[in-house]
Amino acid sequence: MTITEPTTQARPEAASAHPVHPVPVIIDCDTGVDDALALLFAVRHPGLDLRAVTCVAGNTDVDQVVRNTLTVLDIAGAAPGLPVARGAERPLIEPARFAEHVHGRDGMGDLGLPAPATRAPVDVDAVTLLRREILGSPRPVTLIPTAPLTNIALLLRTYPEVTRNIERIVFMGGAVAVGNATPVAEFNVWHDPEAAAILLTAGVPITMYGLDVFQRVLVPPADVQRLRASAEPGARLAGDLLAHRDPAASGDPTPTGNLGDAGTVCAVADPAGLTTRLLPVEVSLAPGPTRGQTVVDRRPRHGESEIHHGAREKPLVDVALDIDVERYLKLYLGTVEKR
Length: 339
Ligand code: BDR
Ligand code: CA
Fold this sequence. Notes:
The chain is α/β, with parallel strands linked by helices. The protein has a single domain (about 1-300, about 315-335), classed as Ribonucleoside hydrolase-like (Inosine-uridine Nucleoside N-ribohydrolase, Chain A, Alpha-Beta Complex), CATH 3.90.245.10. The chain is built from 14 helices and nine strands. Helix 1 (about 35-45) links the parallel strand 1 (about 25-30) and strand 2 (about 50-55). The structure holds beta-D-ribofuranose and calcium ion. Beta-D-ribofuranose binds near residues 32 and 180.
């Protein structure tokens, strides 16, 4: 596709609270404090049918990601047979670079969580599990990557036929404006830019839930305290995760209480809370200060580059530009605390 005037895509239907057909979803994650919040929500939302979880290196090493994921699914009360698979232990080209300063040494805020009690990963790798679950689903699957996109890129290159049963991909990554890993690059894309570039050209509808909306969904302190005091283990875990980074103690100005990756899953359950525009997006793969940047073209018309050199093919992505914070807070708390 070439650069076009921005258009909007047909909005996917919301996952109803009393669903006849829950939306089949698969989460690819690097659990991860906010990935854990996302899993708690996905397990507990009645409109989502969580069919598998795949793990990738990102916030911490992939074996720790698997362990964290299994523990969170235990606490969330996920179906005992929910398959979880280990995936890539490093990006396609670069070495892994973990985010312990954000997520703690164990990737879970060093909360001292127990080892998984009842679960183990399946005996196939993440790419094999993704293929099996996507092609085996009676209805097209929505993929929700909340991590570096290595597993997804490997899947698309190894088994391109999976796209015939993917409804869309809603990924946490990128930024229209400001980055976090670098001034312009968001962590998940920066960690494996080549994989992100492969994702953007998957040929299925893609929604980019980037930092511009990701950073805005902050749970008020009173709600965090209520969650922490809950007698129900899943709600209590959500509260502890939301509270884990006290800006006063960590010296980090990022406010606590960010739903983070969980907002991406809220956007699948309730797409009407997200304002998006279909825009051309490219990942900068060049070495240097822009590597990993998602370059989002918001210009109303072609510029000199296209006039002099012709328009280049660029994937069109449904980019999140605004978010109904109150709506998603209510949705998240109402879902996770319901048990
Ligand atoms: C992303 O990076 C990770 O630290 C979070 O889990 C989230 O997926 C934000 O840039
Ligand atoms: Ca993540």
